[in-house]
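fwd from M.: "can u put these together and see what the complex looks like"

so here's what she sent:
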Amino acid sequence: MTKRTILTVLLAGCSLIAALPALAHHSFQAEFDASKPVTLKGTLSKIDWINPHIYFYLDVKDEGGKVTNWTLECIPTGFMHRAGLTRDDFAIGDTVTVLAYRAKDGTRAFAWAQELTFANGRKVAFGANRPTPSPDEAPSK
Amino acid sequence: MSSRFSWRAAIVACGILSFVALGASAQVDRATVSHGAAAAAEIKAAAAKPTPRASDGHPDLTGYWDFPQPSVTEHTKDGVVYASPFIPGGNAPGQMQGDPNPPPYKPELLGKVKELAKNQTHADPAYHCKPLGVPRVGPPRQVVQTPKLLVFFYQVDIGEGDQPGIGVRLIPTDGRPHRKDVDPMYFGDSVGHWDGDTLVVDVNHLTEDTWLGISGYFHSSALHVVERYTRKGNTLIYEATVEDPNVLTKPWAMTPQTVRLEDGMVVEQPPCEERDEPHLVNDEHHTRDY
């Protein structure tokens, strides 16, 4: 390995670190609880396609027929674009299943959207750096 | 080599580079979170290309510039679209303690910097959707160069200081002085000239409502920034020297950043609305401490 190659590798490593502030508006741990996953199946009622976080709103019906409108915080729009997704990939009325993490402050029906699966099986993961909750472990609501 | 091990090696490497090879002004490029060694290789290959010149003989900075990133197709793996800088099997986020190149604050202000850093989610203007401003915004995403005027376009959509719409800076290179009829603003007032093959941009009239970096790096209204833009092949190197005699003991050379020429065009960004603050239960705010 030449000195030049070594330097290139070192620079690459430093690049990773130096670019980190671009990752997060805030720490996930400051707002959401990785130990409280929830699986939500419902229909998209509204989408706020804004920064620094997109918000999905999901109507979720419980066994008794009562509908709760969940607010699901998500990634910045730039992360969607990098993965080839735009606002038009999500339609109001879509039936989706979302694996999410509840808010730490106890706000009801508010969570971080970690993974969204469309009715046709297409799956989008928002951040691979957190453990995806297993549906088996997740409470029904 | 696991990604975790790579990460630790990178941290060690940065320390070595900072202290041994390059000293206080670490000449470390910021490339990309997600592309790692591939980014460095792509930057190196792009830098080896010929440097095109404009009709007036200066290097032509015109083009769309970005940090090397995984392609759109690389974001899909085993049928799952990963809308994240981190793709399974790729680089993982990590934690770094300490900034290898902090601004040289006056000793009596270090406590304030530390306090602001701790309180970043409440105190950082960029956290509340204010533009990052010069020089924190870094290199432009797109440049249009004419003999007497350059136009810089910024697209910030990464969850930090997001720029609604498209950010625009005008850089005259016709020898005119700074304007006196403008308010202090996020991009300030810029005048440019060529120093050999490097475009030098002098920036003043910068608002106090920005930080120089995420870790409480505040500044005063005396902020004066000199930027240097050097095209090398199909790369653009961004360097900035920051002067603020009210808060710094000496001028501070920011860590340079290198972007690569790509096919692309900036797109209008949606509004930025900060809604998290009421829900935060602690001061954790990012993945490193600066």
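replying to her w this: Chain B is about 15% helix and 20% strand.
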